[in-house]
Design brief:
about 350 residues; mainly alpha
């Protein structure tokens, strides 16, 4: 019997070695396109590039944008995209022969005249209904979305995580009251409430940007409560937590040292998935007129500005809408990848 078991083990080891060698050979035989697809499936390269571009664009928007996003020029109302090509019909560059450049006054006049030329960087993606540069408004819109989302997400992580830990750790009436509060809050029509609150503050002269941050923060915390609570319910039954309770550790020490570290991965995944939804929420409010008001450039507001001119000037709504789509999709893909990497039960990368 013992000999037979050893033979089975040897046969199994041989099969494993053969299988691993075949797997290595199969990977080696992959073509370059197949290797590229495998790499993109395993690592979220494209979403990371989009996210990095978003962050850099949002931080350095004044330096990157080719023009002032709120500067109006009605002469170029609904101007089509130039794609960076020269437009000689709008070039009003002065003729040096008309100026005596040896005289300081003539040099100053010549330099002032040169500033009226039509640069290649202007209206690369077209102009909106007020003659504002669409590319500059899209770039500055990333800054607005990042700022609003950062404040709302930070408050959502803090409030939602604390409520989830309290509900899962203490249980009983604490859990019942907090979770019923979450259920009641999720049953409220958020868009209608947001419209009423925004219009109330806007008509009374309140700070619109602060109101938008507050409104988005109201919906940022709910996913953290349920997900963190589920993790805490699992962690609090572990032996090391029970041992800490028996040894006389305080509730604060147990939560900070044993409970909270076990929820970091869940908080990180939920936050990465929530960022895209919050950007979409801010854009929705701006589109409905309850978000960032003019003249501050916001993606949702830019989409709303172009809906009346969608046939004659499609670029007004298309480019900010495409930016919203690209960013939200990148964040969702990155959140899915992060969840698969941090949860061993969901690893399906190979």
């Amino acid at each position: 019997m013992h000999m037979a078991q050893q033979a089975d083990i040897q046969i199994t080891d041989t099969e494993i070695n053969v299988g691993s060698k075949e797997g290595a050979r199969a990977k080696a035989k992959r073509s370059l396109p197949a290797q590229l697809i495998y790499f993109l499936r395993r690592w979220p390269l494209i979403p990371l590039i989009i996210m990095i571009v978003l962050v850099i664009t949002g931080i350095f928007a004044p330096q990157i944008s080719p023009a002032d996003p709120i500067e109006q020029s009605l002469s170029f109302r609904n101007f089509p995209p130039t794609w960076g090509a020269a437009r000689p019909e709008f070039n009003t560059a002065p003729n040096p022969a008309d100026y005596d450049l040896t005289i300081t006054k003539e040099k100053s006049a010549f330099n002032r005249a040169k500033k009226t030329t039509f640069p290649r960087s202007k209206y690369v993606l077209g102009a909106d209904n007020l003659g504002r540069d669409v590319l500059s408004r899209v770039i500055h819109g990333a800054r607005v979305s990042l700022k609003v989302t950062a404040y709302a997400l930070t408050s959502g992580i803090i409030i939602g995580s604390l409520m989830g830990i309290a509900a899962g750790y203490f249980g009983g009436w604490t859990d019942e009251i907090l979770m019923r509060f979450v259920d009641i809050f999720l049953a409220l029509p958020f868009i209608l409430i947001a419209l009423v609150i925004a219009q109330l503050f806007l008509t009374s002269g309140g700070a619109a940007e602060g109101v938008v941050i507050l409104l988005i923060a109201l919906v940022a915390w709910t996913p953290f409560v349920r997900q963190v609570r589920a993790d805490v319910l699992t962690i609090r039954g572990q032996e090391y937590v029970q041992a800490a309770k028996i040894s006389g550790a305080s509730h604060i020490r147990i939560v900070l040292k044993h409970i909270l570290p076990g929820t970091f991965s869940t908080i990180l995944v939920v936050a990465s998935l929530r960022v895209g939804q919050l950007i979409l929420t801010e854009s929705t409010l701006s589109f409905l007129g309850a978000g960032i008001p003019d003249p501050i450039p916001a993606w949702g507001k830019s989409v709303a500005d172009g809906r009346q001119f969608i046939e004659e000037a499609w670029w007004i709504s298309f480019w900010p809408g495409f930016a919203i789509f690209l960013v939200v999709m990148a964040l969702n893909f990155f959140g899915d990848w992060l969840r698969d990497r941090l949860d061993p039960r969901l690893r399906q990368l190979d």
